[in-house]
């Protein structure tokens, strides 16, 4: 009887669900997402529809619509949402030239994103950086090394960018590497191709400049990656740019959006503006005079979602003034709500495959191991005169330079909070536990920068949490409020006070290490921490004690106030005081800190009495060492997105000088003058003109911004545990190269495809600890037609003494130079692992209609020229090992 009743109840469930769906048809899972979305939009007022077209879409309680913020970032890991695995910056991932590896990375990122989203929902949070619509990847072309945001891209080549971008989007959205959906019903995440299109600086002018590229450059350089992501990866969203293109705002362009994106490419997804770009339409570009005119123009030209605050207020005004038909609003809102439904937001969680991903995947050991592997593969060995790998029996090694022990040198921009980031200094120390590793910062990152990270942290041996304690560090009390009131949610001992969290609370780090339970969660913003204990100065004398924070901080010794800046700050700021202390005596210390909003950071540091200058300290360390590792270059603190601070060689986040900053160059030359072997490790998101180092230093390594395990990976390469095989995704120009004007978007003279000069290091360059031979390049035919595939095969053998990866690159050039055609163009690459003596045959396919096309401005269409071509295979764009010719026949 019980079985019959249960069966009867189950049989009635579809009927009960159908009745509920009749009342709210947008919850009826039997209908298409578009039908459900249209039914929901039909119940909304004009004001409600307009509000749903902004990134911070409010709840509509009467319709059961939850609040949702569309703004999320996942450039190289889930960003600005607290704890997440941080992979190498995008430019570093591009340097791997490894599409299968990118498949793994993007799947991991989407797993963590899904798990974090559902944890946020369980806690009743619906804010920014907590959703499922991710504004990545950035597939703009890194046309000029001065652009501060070039680090976010996959480099200067449209083909490399396309292949990596397609892989990244498929992984984020829940598709297999060949593009098949793993769930035919619900999308895992929405990826976004940005910034469409023709956008790559200058940052200071991005809200005002108008780009008029030749149609050749537009179609041959700036658009191919976007076309690939639309046609091959079915990317869910496309983000416009700030600037104008041919006089139209790129975030409200009929030509770009309606003609190309939807008309020529058949795009079915949604389009969003860059953040506050709709404001630019009237305020800065002055295309129209009012917000309502800007909103009407953007919506009519195909931009459904406003990252900003214009649409909600301006769209209703525009409709009432007759500037915008309400039917256009309905169409846009329906497209957006259908996208949310496709992600499963309006369906029972148990019916959504991706909602079952456990939170335990976030920052798992497997993800940490992958971050290390990606960092290893991204590292480029620029030069090696036999100094690398360094011997493991070194007794004393000096690690010198401003980015050696700086977490920011690992992260770049748009990053999450890693649980346990490993700097290069720490990586080297852990790799050589038997050696004495001496560290000296030596120089500031750039001249004139007030760098709070320059002062050494107070080390654990000089701190204890209570009198007589054998523990080292300070007692930390973590509060859920800014005034440090009530009971702390967590108490622990912190060995040092040197923390930096990007849009996340310390809780994320603590949970990742198993130190905080579900009931001990701190908010992302508005928390406070009190550290207390005793300070144990080693010698008597005058100490300079520094407390740095973003936001409020205050410090007392023996109950006497020493430093206080209890106010909000827009960045990490340092305050210091000189104080006389007695060696051997214990001083009661209390450090209090609060975080207001956004980024969070706090440091407790000091200079000991009689300390030498950082420069002298570095030279002393080098003179007494068996080898010197100089770690310098750039960080996201000086190159990045629209910065307000300027330094010599930098302006608004861009660079005005591609050389190594002068402070570091002076230090590097002095280290070399000691006569000790020096290896240079560059942290950077862009090309650096290291001409002097190329001439004088025996080993140069580019680490990029290598992510949370970057220091470990660098040590793996330096000491031979990993064989480097990264390749440059950008051209490294000579320091005195006269580059075209930064604001000129013509491609002539730019990138390996059009640059006719002698580069410092060419696109695709990268050395190994072994050698590879190429042989037997063969084509399956001597001639082909436009649509007929040509197959090329080549044999590659590891002719060295150790296993390693080779990145085999295939380029094509026309035998008869034609105006406007590239000198050569990458059209295939494979990263292959070979044991010593192992040989493998690799195959490439070339389809003229796809791989040899170029835009003909007279025909206003792509075309393929008949005639002779040369296929080149080699280890870089300049290191060609084999060549073969073929003909494309006229049709």
UniProtKB/TrEMBL annotation:
Residues in PA14 domain copies: 469-622
InterPro entries named in the record: BXL, Fn3-like, GH, Glyco_hydro_3_C, Glyco_hydro_3_C_sf, Glyco_hydro_3_N, Glyco_hydro_3_N_sf, Ig-like_fold
MF annotations from Gene Ontology: alpha-L-arabinofuranosidase activity; beta-glucosidase activity; xylan 1,4-beta-xylosidase activity
Keywords linked to the UniProt accession: Hydrolase, Signal
One GO biological process term: xylan catabolic process
Family annotation (PANTHER family): BETA-D-XYLOSIDASE 5-RELATED, SUGAR HYDROLASE-RELATED
Protein name according to UniProt: Beta-D-glucoside glucohydrolase
């Amino acid at each position: 009887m019980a079985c019959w009743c249960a069966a009867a109840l189950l049989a009635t469930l579809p009927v009960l669900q159908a009745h509920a769906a009749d009342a709210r048809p947008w919850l009826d899972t039997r209908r298409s997402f578009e039908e459900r979305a249209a039914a929901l939009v039909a119940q909304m007022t004009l004001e409600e529809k307009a509000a749903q077209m902004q990134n911070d879409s409010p709840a509509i309680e009467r319709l059961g619509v939850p609040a949702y913020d569309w703004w999320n970032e996942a450039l190289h890991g889930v960003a600005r949402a607290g704890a997440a695995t941080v992979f190498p910056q995008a430019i570093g991932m591009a340097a791997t030239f490894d599409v299968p590896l990118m498949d793994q990375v993007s799947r991991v990122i989407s797993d963590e994103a899904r798990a974090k989203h559902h944890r946020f929902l369980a806690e009743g949070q619906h804010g920014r950086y907590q959703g499922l619509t991710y504004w990545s990847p950035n597939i703009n072309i890194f046309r000029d090394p001065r652009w501060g945001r070039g680090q976010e891209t996959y480099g200067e080549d449209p083909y490399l960018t396309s292949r990596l971008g397609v892989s990244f989007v498929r992984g984020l959205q829940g598709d297999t590497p060949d593009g098949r959906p793993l769930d035919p019903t619900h999308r895992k995440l929405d990826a976004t191709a940005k910034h469409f299109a023709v956008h790559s600086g200058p940052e200071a002018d991005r809200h005002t400049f108008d780009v008029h590229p030749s149609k050749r450059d537009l179609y041959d350089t700036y658009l191919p990656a976007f076309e690939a992501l639309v046609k091959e990866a079915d990317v869910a969203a496309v983000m416009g740019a700030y600037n104008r293109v041919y006089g139209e705002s790129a975030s409200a362009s009929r030509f770009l959006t309606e003609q190309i994106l939807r008309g020529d490419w058949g795009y079915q997804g949604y389009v969003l503006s860059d953040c506050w770009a709709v404001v630019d339409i009237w305020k800065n570009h002055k295309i129209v005079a009012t917000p309502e005119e800007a909103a009407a123009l953007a919506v009519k030209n195909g931009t459904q979602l406003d990252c900003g605050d214009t649409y909600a207020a301006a769209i209703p005004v525009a409709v009432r003034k007759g500037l915008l038909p309400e039917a256009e609003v309905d169409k846009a809102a329906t497209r957006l709500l259908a996208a949310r439904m496709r992600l499963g937001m309006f369906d029972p969680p148990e019916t959504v495959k991706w909602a079952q991903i456990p939170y335990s995947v976030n920052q798992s050991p497997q993800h940490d191991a992958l971050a290390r592997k990606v960092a290893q593969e991204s590292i480029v060995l620029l030069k090696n005169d036999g100094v690398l790998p360094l011997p493991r029996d070194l007794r004393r090694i000096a690690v010198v330079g401003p980015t050696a022990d700086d977490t920011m040198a690992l992260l770049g921009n748009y990053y999450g909070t890693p649980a346990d980031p490993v700097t290069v200094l720490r990586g080297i120390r852990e790799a050589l536990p038997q050696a004495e590793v001496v560290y000296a910062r030596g120089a500031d990152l750039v001249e004139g920068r007030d760098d709070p990270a320059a002062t050494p942290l107070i080390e654990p041996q000089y701190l204890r949490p209570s009198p007589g304690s054998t523990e080292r560090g300070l007692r930390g009390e973590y509060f859920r409020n800014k005034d440090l009131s009530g009971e702390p949610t967590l108490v622990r001992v912190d060995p040092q006070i040197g923390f930096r969290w990007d849009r996340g609370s310390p809780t994320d780090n603590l949970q990742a290490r198993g130190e905080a339970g579900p009931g001990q969660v701190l908010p992302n913003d508005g928390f406070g921490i009190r550290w207390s204990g005793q300070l144990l100065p080693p010698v008597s004398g005058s100490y300079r004690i520094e407390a740095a924070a973003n936001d409020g901080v205050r410090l007392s010794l023996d109950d006497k106030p020493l430093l206080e800046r209890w106010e909000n700050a827009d960045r990490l700021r340092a305050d210091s005081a000189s104080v006389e202390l007695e060696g051997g005596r214990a001083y009661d210390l209390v450090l209090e800190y609060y975080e207001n909003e956004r980024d969070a950071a706090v440091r407790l540091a000091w200079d000991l009495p009689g300390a030498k200058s950082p420069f002298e300290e570095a030279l002393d360390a080098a003179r007494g060492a068996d080898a010197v590792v100089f770690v310098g270059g750039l960080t996201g603190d000086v190159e990045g997105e629209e910065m307000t601070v300027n330094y010599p060689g930098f302006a608004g986040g861009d660079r005005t000088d591609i050389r190594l900053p002068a402070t570091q160059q002076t230090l590097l030359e002095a280290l070399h003058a000691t006569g000790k072997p020096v290896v240079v490790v560059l942290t950077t998101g862009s090309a650096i003109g290291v001409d002097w180092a190329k001439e004088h230093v025996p080993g140069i390594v580019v680490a990029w911004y290598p992510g949370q395990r970057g220091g470990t990976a660098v040590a793996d390469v330096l000491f031979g545990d990993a064989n480097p095989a990264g390749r440059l995704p950008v051209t490294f120009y000579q320091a005195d190269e006269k580059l075209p004007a930064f604001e000129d978007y013509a491609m002539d003279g730019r990138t390996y495809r059009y640059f006719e000069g002698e580069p410092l290091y060419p696109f695709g360059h990268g050395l190994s600890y072994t050698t590879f031979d190429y042989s037997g390049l063969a084509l399956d035919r001597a001639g082909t037609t436009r649509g007929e595939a040509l197959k090329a095969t080549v044999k590659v053998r590891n002719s060295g003494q150790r296993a390693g990866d080779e990145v085999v690159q295939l380029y094509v050039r026309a035998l008869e130079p034609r105006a406007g055609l590239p000198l050569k163009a990458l059209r295939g690459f494979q990263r292959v692992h070979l044991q010593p003596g192992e040989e493998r045959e690799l195959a490439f396919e070339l389809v003229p209609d796809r791989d040899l096309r170029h835009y003909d401005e007279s025909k206003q269409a792509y075309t393929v020229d008949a005639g002779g071509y040369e296929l080149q295979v080699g280890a870089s764009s300049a290191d060609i090992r084999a060549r073969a010719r073929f003909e494309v026949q006229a049709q």
